[in-house]
Design brief:
Largest interface: A-B, 45 and 62 residues
Number of strands of chain B: 1
Number of domains of chain A: 2
Order of helices and strands of chain A: HHEHHH
Mean pLDDT of chain A: 85
Radius of gyration of chain A: 54 Å
Number of helices of chain A: 5
Number of helices of chain B: 8
Oligomer: heterodimer
Largest sheet of chain B: none
Radius of gyration of chain B: 17 Å
Shape of chain A: rod-shaped
Helix content of chain A: over 70%
Helix content of chain B: 55-70%
Strand content of chain B: under 5%
CATH topology of the largest domain in chain B: Rna Polymerase Sigma Factor, Chain: A
Chain lengths: 196, 202
């Protein structure tokens, strides 16, 4: 029985001629009757204000939650921008540092080239006197210059592998200075021998 | 629907009740407006809903929970849940139906919490007004209440919504998220079970 008017009517028609079913239908309907009496209500003037207060509190809470989320987002964005800026600055500094290093290196290499050119010119002047080395002193100068050239070649090979090694550059400069002094001494000694 | 008296005159005729405010079967613009306003927390709209559905909500909650205090708490919690979830209302069912679904789920939650506390909730002695059937013996109502308390949640809900609150099977199906046929079958099985118990008790 679905409880609708039609099925109740059909059941009623059947029950009118059947006592057993009539009793069953009666108890069936009695349950419905009693159930309908269970619809309950009461008056509580405090209930609606209570609900209203809780809704308002909920709304305030939700709004403050959104503000908190917004504040957190702004803070995170701020931190992100700060971190990005700091990173940019570090990268720029590193880049500038690299440029400075490169330009300093270029300056050193330029000075070295000028120095080498001067020594080459000095070497050319001394070359003739060394080829005609007639005194033991000139011969020893010649050997010293050969040793210095070997040392220069070795040092230069090391510098080619590590251009930024300042120690090797200082060493090379010292060897060149020594070569320059030796060539000057060769020229002085050569002039002295010619005068004699 | 039992709103009308049965065709046959029986020993205990069905007493016509005050026509309840019915939830509509499908959502309309008004339902969507209500849901939108609820989502914004418009207390004026909540008051409108309370005035329209409040009495039936209290009745449903009372018959599920058995006391006024818990029933009022459930109604209040339902309004809060509606405020929180109104934006998820998709208009698949009438707003009233959706409201009752939220209420019944709230009642189920309250019953489960109560079971966890393992406390017997005393029947409230606050003065309540029985809307209809005042001529029906109070003892019978008490008996029926006790019998209903022993039923599983879904059976009790179907019985209460149909027999006490006067909802149709289509509406009950939407409220309890079951099929209409299932609602009819559950009501039939429940009434049959109650009839057996009723017979034994009397």
């Amino acid at each position: 029985m679905e409880g609708d008017a039609f099925s109740l009517e059909m059941a009623g028609k059947h029950a009118s001629g059947c006592q057993a079913c009539a009793a069953k239908l009666a108890s069936w309907n009695e349950i419905s009757t009693v159930a309908q009496g269970m619809q309950t209500t009461w008056q509580n003037d405090m209930l609606w204000p209570r609900i209203q207060r809780s809704i308002r509190a909920e709304k305030r809470h939700a709004q403050s939650k959104w503000w908190q989320i917004a504040a957190a987002v702004v803070m995170l964005a701020g931190l992100g921008v700060f971190a990005w800026k700091a990173n940019e600055r570090v990268r720029t500094d590193q880049f500038d540092q690299r440029i400075l290093q490169a330009s300093a290196l270029d300056a050193v290499e330029k000075a070295e080239k000028a120095h080498l050119a001067a020594i080459d010119s000095l070497e050319k002047s001394a070359q003739l006197k060394l080829e005609e080395a007639s005194t033991p002193l000139l011969v020893s100068y010649k050997e010293k210059l050969m040793l210095l050239d070997d040392a220069i070649a070795e040092c230069q090979a090391n510098i080619d592998r590590n251009r930024e090694n300042a120690h090797l550059r200082k060493q090379l400069l010292a060897i060149y200075s020594e070569k320059q002094r030796t060539l000057q001494q060769v020229l002085r000694e050569g002039n002295h021998v010619s005068n004699q | 629907m039992h709103g009308a008296a049965p065709a046959v005159s029986l020993a205990s005729p069905v007493i016509p009740t005050e026509t309840p405010i019915r939830p509509t079967r499908t959502a309309n613009d008004e339902d969507l407006r209500l849901a939108r306003s609820c989502a914004t927390g418009d207390t004026g709209v909540f008051e409108e809903i309370y005035r329209t559905h409040g009495d039936r909500m209290k009745s449903i909650a009372y018959n599920h929970l058995g006391n006024v205090s818990d029933a009022e708490d459930a109604v209040q919690e339902t309004f809060l849940k509606v405020h929180r979830a109104a934006s998820t209302y998709n208009g698949e069912s009438a707003f009233g139906t959706w409201l009752y679904r939220v209420l019944i789920n709230t009642c189920y939650d309250a019953l489960r919490r109560r079971q966890r506390r393992i406390q017997e909730a005393p029947m409230d002695d606050v003065i309540t007004t029985e809307r209809a059937g005042s001529s029906v013996d109070d003892a019978k109502r008490m008996t029926l209440r006790k019998m209903l308390n022993g039923l599983p949640e879904q059976r009790r809900s179907v019985f209460l919504l149909f027999e006490v609150e006067g909802l149709t099977h289509a509406e009950i199906a939407q409220v309890l998220n079951i099929t209409e046929g299932n609602s009819k079958w559950i009501l039939f099985a429940t009434k049959k079970q109650l009839q057996e118990q009723w017979k034994n008790m009397s």
